[in-house]
Amino acid sequence: MKIKILKGCSGLFFSFCQGETAEVSAQLGKDLVGGGLAEEIKTVSAKTKAGVKENVES
Fold first, then answer.
1. Residue 25 near residue 6 (C-beta atoms within 8 A)
2. Is the pLDDT assigned to residue 44 strictly greater than 80?
3. Cα dihedral value 5, 11, 13, 16, nearest 10
4. Residue 23 maps to a domain
5. Are 35 and 56 in contact (CB under 8 A)?
6. Which is more confident, 52 or 5?
7. Residue 22 contacts residue 30 (beta carbons within 8 Å)
8. In this predicted model, what pLDDT tens digit does every residue of 8-22 receive, in sequence order?
9. What is the pLDDT of residues 22-41, one digit of tens each?
10. Is 55 a member of any domain?
11. Number of domains comprising the chain
12. Which of 11, 25, 41, 53 has its CB surrounded by the most CB atoms within 10 Å?
């Protein structure tokens, strides 16, 4: 899971600064997001193009 740190935090096996992005385990990510310390960064698939609408009738 990819996250963006909203508030600096640390634990036994990690330490993050505010504004940092990190790839973490799903469990750690859920805990940090749930605690308000981070937000999940959603990944966009390579096939999806930003701003392009598909199957639109003219």
1. no
2. no
3. 20
4. yes
5. no
6. 5
7. no
8. 999 999 999 999 999
9. 999 999 999 999 999 999 99
10. no
11. 1
12. 41
Evaluate whether 1 touches 42 at the Cβ level (below 8 Å): no
Tokens for 10, please give them. 């640390």
Q: Looking at the predicted structure, is the pLDDT value of residue 49 above 80?
A: no
7 within domain boundaries? yes
Residue 46 within a domain: no
Q: Which domain holds residue 7?
A: 2-40
> What predicted TM-score, i.e. pTM, was given to this entire model?
0.71
**Residue 43 tokens, joined:** 């990944």
What are residue 34's phi and psi, to 5 degrees?
A: -60, -30
